[in-house]
Design brief:
Layout lengths: L11 H26 L1 H22 L6 H18 L2 H21 L5 H21 L5 H26 L3 E3 L3 E5 H22 L5 H28 L15 H5 L2 H17 L6
Antiparallel strand pairs: 1-2
Helix pairs in contact: 1-2, 2-3, 2-5, 3-4, 3-5, 5-6, 5-10, 6-7, 6-8, 6-10, 7-8, 8-10
């Protein structure tokens, strides 16, 4: 510099990255352990996340008052009944909860579509994860593959999108996403997802697993865009701040919202047709 003053260095980006890495280094091992041990450990993880997600959704969409807790209790009741009883009984609880959330929303003078949308938005993936992990033979592989595909998609999309750039995927909804990122994320998910399944159980049809990785990576990005559209509608940047450096739980698991129910449907269809899963 001409005046001998050194240029100032913005350290905020470095601190932000460090916080994100530290948070991930704590959360990921906990999540992995719960998936591996299953049972009450996995149920507790899903129930905790579902409760926080419900609160974040209501905060995001302008909910307040006791009606918010009606949604939380309803979601937790469904998960508990599914865990200790049957899917039929959980379905009955879901229907009762739907009515209660509707009434609470009307009493609170809310636009009823938002609390009901949040109720379904949180319940479906949470129930799907419990159902998948409870599969007698494939539960661990299915949930592990799903998580790995969603995480790999995010990592690949970020890496390819930042290094290649190019046309925007959805400029009005999520300006930072690119087509290069989508393609890179899908390829990353296919490769890493297939490698993990092969390591856990080499008996799977790996070509189908790789194809599933591509398709579910695309679905994960669509799932991400859905939440981005809701946040943009309400002019909110993050769904919350509970995870340092990452925002809210909804911000971190948005890729699961559509992919978990989709995997349940796929597994059911594959078990009822001649398609070979193994």
């Amino acid at each position: 510099m001409i005046d001998g003053t050194a240029p100032q260095v913005d350290k905020s980006a470095g601190r932000s990255l460090l916080i994100r890495v530290l948070s991930a280094s704590v959360l990921i091992p906990v999540a992995v352990a719960c998936v591996v041990f299953g049972g009450m450990f996995f149920f507790t993880l899903v129930a905790l996340f579902a409760a926080v997600m419900t609160l974040e959704w209501d905060r995001l969409t302008g909910g307040k008052g006791p009606g918010v807790w009606v949604s939380v209790v309803a979601v937790l009741a469904i998960l508990l009944v599914l865990h200790v009883s049957s899917a039929l009984n959980a379905g009955i609880v879901f229907a009762v909860g739907f009515v209660l959330v509707t009434v609470a929303g009307m009493v609170g003078r809310r636009v009823i579509v938002w609390p009901l949308a949040g109720y379904v938005y949180v319940t479906l993936p949470a129930v799907s994860l419990l159902w998948l992990r409870g599969a007698p033979d494939d539960g661990l592989v299915l949930v592990t593959w799903l998580f790995v595909v969603v995480w790999s998609t995010d990592i690949g999309a970020y890496a390819f999108g930042r290094s290649i750039g190019g046309p925007k995927l959805a400029p009005k909804t999520s300006p930072n996403k690119t087509w290069a990122g989508l393609i890179g994320g899908a390829l990353t998910a296919a490769v890493i997802g297939t490698a993990v399944v092969w390591a856990l159980d080499g008996g799977y049809a790996l070509l189908l697993v790789a194809l599933g990785g591509v398709l579910f990576a695309v679905l994960a990005q669509i799932s991400d865009l859905v939440e981005s559209a809701v946040k943009r509608h309400f002019h909110v940047k993050d769904s919350g701040s509970i995870i340092p450096g990452h925002g809210g739980v909804l911000d971190r698991v948005d890729g699961i919202i559509l992919t978990a129910p989709a995997l349940v449907i796929l597994v059911i269809l594959m078990n009822e047709t001649t398609i070979v899963w193994h």
